[in-house]
Sequence to fold (279 residues):
Amino acid sequence: MTVVAGITGAGLGLRRSLLGPLQSWHGPTPDFLEVAPENWMRVGGRLGRRFREFTERYPFVCHGLSLSLGSTDPLDLDFLAELRVFLRKHGVRCYSEHLSYCSHQGHLYDLMPIPFTEAAVRHVAGRIRQVQDALGQRIAIENVSYYAAPAREMTELEFLNAVLREADCELLLDVNNVYVNSVNHGYDPDSFLAGIPASRIAYGHVAGHFVEAEDLLVDTHGAEVVDPVWRLLAAAYRRFGRFPTLLERDFNIPPVATLMAELAQISSAQVVASEPQPA
Fold:
């Protein structure tokens, strides 16, 4: 695995509504935190100072929302320059983005699937290399949930691995997305994991989803992690080792004690994966 310096254990996505509860919380705390940089880059004043208190206290990673790696629109070089300053100011250990796009001559306000084609591999890998050059560091790309696969020439796994190779970037392994896609598109999630290059994994995500139908799950980050996803995460640890893993919760955010209980489940799975397995 690719080791992200200073990032271990179980992390939590930091939302503004959690600033106060986390500051006053006296129990176990996350090992690291993650934010979308777009939500904080231009925040100043009292709120900016509170955020700075957190980046001085915790190791941080950033997960971007708006880079739109798969788009044909020009990359926003001004944004990348501002982002580079932000990452260094706050000592951010890793920057990741979605393997998708969210703009086409304007913002689309959703994460759209990139066609699984050779041409798309070359296009998005070239843009990732541009981003890495602009930031002066390697980035991680996240395997995303998707609900349609237009113009498919290869499988999701083949596409993901081709982009990782050609861009020479790292992977943010979202275990919930693997499970959601396996149900929606009818593949075996364990076989998908078996095809992931362990050396590319920077860290992981786990989250809850919404069951629309027996064969349609929607990645929402608005519910507790379910047992099949916990089992898949445990399988990933057995296969790859105990990579840092972050709990995403974007709405229906429960009390801190409930979030810490889910983080404890991540930590427990990591410990179990490190124990010798029966012969």
Observations:
- The chain has one domain: 10-274.
- The chain has a mean pLDDT of 93.
- The radius of gyration is 18 Å.
- The domain at 10-274 is CATH 3.20.20.150 (TIM Barrel).
